[in-house]
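Handout, section 3.2

Students often ask what a structure token actually looks like in practice. Rather than define it abstractly, here is a full record for TIGR01244 family phosphatase. The first block is the sequence as you would receive it.
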Amino acid sequence: MEIRRISPEFAVSPQITVEDVGAAAAQGYRSIVCNRPDGESDPQPRSDEIRQAAEDHGLGFRNVPVVSGQVTDGDVSEFGRALSELPGPVLAYCRTGTRSSTLWALSKAPRLSADAILEAVGGAGYDLQALRPRLEAATGKVLPPAPAVRHDVVIVGGGAGGIATAASLLKRRPGLDIAIVEPRDDHYYQPGWTLVGGGVFDRADTMRPMASVMPKGVKWIRTAVSGFAPERSEVILEDGGRIGYRALVVSPGLKLDWDKVEGLRETLGRNGVTSNYLFDMAPYTWELVRTLKGGKAIFTQPPMPIKCAGAPQKAMYLSADAWSRSGRIKDIDIEFCNAGGALFGVADYVPALMEYVARYNATLSFGHNLVKVDGEARKAWFDVTKDGKTERVEKAFDMLHVCPPQTGHDFIRRSPLADAAGWVEVNSETLQHARYGDIFGLGDGCSTPNAKTAAAVRKQAPVVAENVLSVLDGKAPHAVYDGYGSCPLTVERGRIVLAEFGYGGVLLPSFPTWMINGKLPSRLAWLLKEKMLPWIYWDGMFKGREWLAGPRILPMSPTAREALDACDFKDQRKAS
């Protein structure tokens, strides 16, 4: 827990946990205020869980949820009432602490000067200068809105896509004015979580401080994005501030929608229910694998699209391999419940996978979509679709590994950048936005019909970098992405089926078959996954090194190039 004191009676914090409530009480806080709506992002404690913990420790509690970037006068009034009615000192929290500090600042505006307020929140690490006009207005001194700070390139998201794109941009044009908007303090190597759940990697090795991976020369804006104003070439931050851009890169990732499965959030991490899709949960997967002596083990996969479509079955294979090595597999009934109709989307790799399904005596249940979990009763319910009919089926389990349903983030889905399905709508080849020529997107949150993997991002980032610079120079995008994605399917400890493919399931192997035949399990592919890929991620992608990932430049006749260059892509904007 990171508590930042703003005044003797008030402090803010990023999202807290149930365990943090006791620590806050020990530090003398007597009340807690929640400013974050439930279900805003990946698993966060519900406000009622924090309320119960607060009551258990004798603390006051008030829930004043505020939508990111939309702090209303009503929100400020309700927050002010909470501060006046609750015993102090008060600790308020949201995703990053920005909304809570914004609410405090606006609630104090009628009695304190803007300078005093901004100095207080600034001392706690929150730059709220964009609030000055609103603060001044509250004291009767109305000033015109402050102009947005502008950068050549603004990147939304400090995940693999955002960091790699910044590195590729700076490789091509050192000194380019780039800002990355990212609220998290840590960066995660998510492809490693499968191996954490398989007992191969240590969880700590998949995390590094965000500051250590930010490319030198990039301005890191440590807050969240609440929306976009593409007609003004501006990004709206959660405190209401705005950042202008000449070109925008959107790489927000996606939302793990745990609440779409009834009862899942409440039991996740206990009662035998786990998921490798979470940093905090992958070690629990390995704990369950090590301790399960017999019974029923179910592995689930929701409807597509999902991040790394092979990950749900990777968890099954590594678990089954561990049980096989320890002699327990004969006592464990393994079932893979897939909402889809095939084991893997590219048929060339299925025969090798089916050999391992047979080796582990696993049952494949297609058309099975997980909809409800009762962890204490060790029961799960699936909507099973067959021949156009759907029925609800109950299954008992001793271990349940869940891949959650996945969607675009809320702030993307409600923005003018989204398509009908809630993803950033981009051209599948140039990755330029379908309606705004100065905007590009990449990564898991985009509409491209490729596999959502880190390997895809490794190929997309150089394409985006090349095309962003073309647009900044007033030219047409000329680099293309072929849909490349890679899924190293860990079928056993020490062997991998290395699936590499592009749009339409076309095979796109990186190595000759005499070295790695992707259709067969390979020890060399395991070495690549375990030893080489983390190094390529941290020291290749994030340093602008584009090994086997250089962009393909669009061939174009002189006449076509002259015609495209005549287009003013910098001002190609249409109202959505």
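Discussion prompt for tutorial groups: Residues 454-472 form the longest helix (19 residues). How would you have guessed this from the sequence alone?
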